[in-house]
Specification:
CATH class of the largest domain: Alpha Beta
Bound molecules: cobalamin
Number of strands: 5
Structural class: alpha/beta
Number of helices: 9
Order of helices and strands: HHHHEHEHEHEHEH
CATH superfamily of the largest domain: Cobalamin-binding domain
Strand content: 5-15%
Number of domains: 2
Largest sheet: 5 strands, parallel
CATH architecture of the largest domain: 3-Layer(aba) Sandwich
Strand order of the largest sheet: 2-1-3-4-5
Length: 213
């Protein structure tokens, strides 16, 4: 069944994806397994095809729509795993000028499933919006995504805006996305960086425990 879902994404079969995610859930497969081996497995294979120039951006868009429809079916089941008091509050978004959100949405899902309350500001989020939501929600963590070399520098604007608003010492900042790395996170004054979902949970857990000290 997981292989079928992977194939559905690779062939942009939206209805089949939804049906097969339901079937997999009915068969008792773990939601986390359906996410990692089925939906994400398919998406990663599509990105590989794109990187090898075997398909173009329109096909990637079709695959991302298919992935999203599968996620819509799966997400409530992932969330049901964790109902306890949240481990912390996170504000997440893709920075200004950037509309890539697949990676950000995956990180949001991982953090939600691991027990955090996550407020998603969406894409093309200004520094002002990050600051105002962080204040309003009493956030512990601000998480930013950027997929382009042209937009990654807007992350630094958010760090500066958090400083100017006086709440920099109340929040930890984690960043991620294609062109970013640990060095860059340090250079712009963020507190952490992660390459993917599991690592993001580890880094955020560590930042939370540093804050409690
Ligand atoms: C899919 C895609 C699109 C889709 C986006 C759909 C969507 N809803 O997101 C569409 C077709 C809309 C698109 C548009 C554009 N794109 Co585009 N796109 C891609 C592509 C092929 C894949 C990105 C992706 O979704 N990967 C899959 C996800 C799951 O991985 P990810 O995003 O990397 O996320 C993981 C990690 O990075 C990390 N992570 C991500 N965010 C965060 C946040 C935190 C806090 C943490 C801890 C971790 C983390 O964890 C994630 C999960 O593992 C990349 C090429 C590539 N190979 O990456 C180009 C790419 C990013 N796009 C690019 C470009 C140029 C564009 C356009 C300008 C194209 C155009 N000419 O119009 C527009 C951008 C418009 C804008 N203003 O943003 C360039 C950027 C080049 C650069 N300057 O750096 C790339 C690199 C392609 C290329 N080689 O030229 N794109």
């Amino acid at each position: 069944m997981l292989e079928k879902i992977r194939e559905d994404i690779l062939n942009y079969r939206r209805e089949e994806t939804k049906k097969n995610v339901c079937k997999a859930l009915n068969e008792g497969l773990l939601p986390s397994e359906i996410l990692e081996k089925g939906l994400l497995g398919g998406l990663k294979a599509v990105i590989e095809e794109y990187n090898k120039d075997e398909i173009g951006l329109p096909e990637v868009v079709l695959a991302t729509w298919t992935f999203r429809e599968g996620m819509e079916v799966l997400e409530p089941f992932l969330k049901n795993l964790e109902k306890a008091k949240p481990k912390g509050i996170i504000v997440i978004g893709t920075v200004e000028g950037d509309i890539h959100d697949l990676g950000k949405n995956i990180i949001k899902t991982f953090l939600t499933v691991s027990g955090y309350e996550v407020y998603d500001l969406g894409v093309d989020v200004s520094a002002k919006e990050f600051v105002s939501k962080a204040k309003e929600s009493n956030a512990n963590i601000v998480a930013m995504s950027a997929l382009m070399t042209t937009t990654m520098f807007n992350m630094e604007k958010v760090v500066e805006a958090l400083k100017e608003s006086g709440i920099r010492d109340k929040v930890k900042i984690i960043i991620g996305g294609g062109p970013t790395n640990l060095d860059f996170s340090k250079r712009i004054g963020a507190d952490g960086y992660a390459r993917e979902g599991k690592e993001a949970i580890e880094v955020v857990d560590k930042l939370m425990s540093e804050m409690r000290r």
